[in-house]
């Protein structure tokens, strides 16, 4: 489950103060009362004195009031009002008290003037954005209080097109990752999403036979996007075969063997290196016909991951194997005979060379030999990558390990989407609402098309979207680092061919890069709002300064945003970019290409 950490008390205090001290409303009320009382000099003196008092009090409270950004599982996201640039530096930078007053005064102003019409579209945009914000980040009780305070009800708030339905996604993902009783596979068919649950088709005998036949034959898994030509060779077959390997029908069969391994915890090792190490262990498990079972994951050992999900990869992504196999493997950990017979092995059974540079599984032949990279350096495509087999395998392994997100990970993405794209989405949605919204609101029931077909569509984000990972800092000891200007030069090159490209999702650990990004007013730049490095501190020191929860959550958000962007710019010398490229090349993005700022240490 994903949870929120919102400064509820502070939020409520600010709202109450703003309600009590809405200066325009008080001026209006006092002015009306003054006219009724007449034009006597004593009355005028009283009115002037009262207005001066209100002004002084408002200034005093404004100096004391500070309304910060909301926090979600260790990541801070915040947003400010619209500006001509409409960029992320406007959405995701620290929120000052002035920013907060801008947003709240717009919505409060609507409540205080219920008798008059909403004057501007900006006021409606701020109200809709705030309503989505309350629904996304608040408890049910908090959501109700917010809606009541602003004169809204849940049915009058339209769906947010930029957000996932995380509860529904979690149910669908679990269903697609669980073998149906008496079947060889989960309900993988040629249909996507919820379409095969449509009641009318479920009652159709011919369709039921078709589903049974398709599942028996083993349709391709639903987490692969695009055709074979849009992915690395054999991606769909490899993903299906890996799922079968990792999900034996009977985990207690004496022929089923296991490899149980913690995630790497070597000091200074980043998330990318940890994932690369686990890809190596998965390769060993495939070659030795063992089921890989991951154990302790230090980066998930924080308060955001609850219950059994704490310290587990399954806090962020569905487990690599079934719960039955995990239970059986952990039973065998205490069985001395099982160790002696080789029924179970651990990471200590293999040396570092086998884990980090071992042979790629040959189960599927050698499809990397006819792989043409779509990576460009200095205006030329690479003919091949060094260690092409390892590149192909790690792409397959990371795709499998991240095949389905948990509800918690989905929630992290939602908060990032809302902070970055929420106001644009609100402005867009308002164009289709009644002119007098929220006084006049439509409450149409969901149609079958919306529930069973469109529900599987991904949320709206501004497209085309370019993802850019700028790696600098201590990476200079491993590769040639390139200044931000070099990345933006490549961005301009992409836009020369795709002139409708305006949006960039920027991920970086360097504050210098964020500062420079504000100079590019002809781009819409989005980024997460976390503390960044100043100077050349080590990555380990930087992550320690953020804390475990934040230093894990925000990179994973950036990773998934990069994997789904339309274009990508990175550095071949970065392991993180290496893995992002692998996710993209098993996610239908082969023909989008990868522009690299350097050619150092390429794999």
Automatic annotation (TrEMBL):
GO terms for molecular function: alpha-(1->6)-fucosyltransferase activity. The chain crosses the membrane at residues 41-64. GO terms for biological process: protein N-linked glycosylation. Gene3D superfamilies: 3.40.50.11350. Keywords: Membrane, Transmembrane, Transmembrane helix. This is Alpha-(1,6)-fucosyltransferase. It comes from Dipteronia dyeriana.
């Amino acid at each position: 489950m994903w949870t929120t950490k919102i400064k509820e008390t502070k939020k409520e205090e600010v709202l109450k103060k703003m309600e009590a001290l809405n200066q325009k409303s008080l001026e209006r009320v006092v002015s009306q009362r003054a006219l009724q009382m007449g034009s006597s000099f004593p009355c005028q003196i009283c009115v002037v004195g009262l207005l001066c008092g209100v002004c002084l009090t408002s200034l005093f409270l404004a100096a004391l009031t500070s309304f910060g950004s909301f926090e979600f599982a260790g990541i801070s996201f915040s947003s400010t009002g619209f500006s001509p640039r409409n960029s992320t530096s406007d959405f995701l930078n620290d929120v000052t008290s002035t920013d907060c007053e801008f947003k709240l005064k717009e919505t409060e102003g609507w409540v205080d003037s219920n008798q008059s019409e909403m004057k501007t579209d900006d006021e409606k945009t701020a109200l809709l954005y705030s309503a989505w914000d309350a629904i996304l980040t608040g408890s049910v009780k908090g959501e109700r209080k917010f809606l009541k305070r602003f004169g809204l009800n849940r049915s009058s708030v339209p769906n947010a097109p930029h957000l996932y339905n995380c509860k529904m996604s979690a149910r669908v993902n679990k269903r697609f990752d669980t073998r149906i009783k008496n079947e060889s596979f989960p309900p993988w068919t040629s249909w996507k999403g919820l379409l095969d649950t449509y009641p009318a088709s479920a009652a159709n005998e011919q369709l039921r036979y078709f589903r049974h036949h398709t599942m028996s034959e083993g349709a391709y898994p639903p987490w692969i996007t695009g055709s074979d030509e849009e992915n690395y060779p054999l991606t769909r077959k490899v993903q299906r075969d890996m799922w079968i390997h990792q999900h034996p029908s009977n985990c207690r069969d004496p022929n089923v063997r296991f490899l149980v391994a913690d995630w790497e915890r070597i000091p200074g090792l980043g998330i990318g290196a940890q994932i690369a190490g686990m890809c190596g262990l998965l390769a060993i498990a495939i070659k030795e016909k063992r089921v890989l079972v991951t154990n302790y994951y230090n980066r998930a050992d924080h308060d955001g991951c609850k219950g059994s999900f704490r310290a587990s990869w399954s806090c962020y992504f569905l487990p690599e194997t079934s719960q039955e196999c995990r239970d059986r493997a952990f039973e065998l950990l205490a069985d001395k005979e099982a160790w002696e017979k080789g029924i179970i092995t651990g990471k200590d059974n293999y040396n570092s060379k086998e884990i980090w540079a071992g042979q790629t599984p040959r189960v599927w032949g050698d499809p990397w030999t006819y792989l043409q990279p779509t990576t460009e350096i200095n205006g030329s495509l690479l003919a091949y990558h060094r260690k092409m087999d390892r590149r192909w395998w790690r792409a397959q392994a990371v795709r499998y390990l991240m095949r389905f997100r948990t509800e918690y990970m989905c929630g992290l993405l939602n908060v990032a989407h809302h902070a970055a794209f929420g106001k644009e989405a609100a402005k867009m949605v308002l164009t289709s609402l009644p002119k007098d919204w929220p006084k006049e609101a439509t409450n149409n029931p969901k149609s079958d098309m919306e529930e069973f077909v469109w529900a599987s569509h991904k949320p709206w984000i501004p497209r085309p979207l370019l993802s850019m990972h700028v790696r600098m800092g201590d990476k200079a000891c491993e590769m040639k680092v390139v200044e931000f200007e070099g990345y933006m030069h490549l961005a301009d090159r992409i836009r020369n061919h795709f002139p409708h490209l305006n949006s960039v999702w920027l991920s970086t650990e360097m504050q210098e890069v964020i500062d420079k990004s504000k100079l590019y007013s002809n781009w819409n730049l989005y980024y997460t709002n976390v503390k960044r490095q100043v100077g050349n501190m080590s990555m380990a020191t930087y992550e320690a300064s953020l804390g475990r929860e934040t230093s894990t959550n925000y990179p994973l958000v950036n990773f998934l945003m990069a994997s789904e962007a339309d274009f990508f710019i990175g550095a071949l010398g970065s392991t993180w970019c290496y893995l992002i490229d692998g996710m993209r090349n098993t996610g239908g993005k082969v023909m989008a290409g990868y522009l690299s700022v350097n050619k150092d240490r390429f794999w």
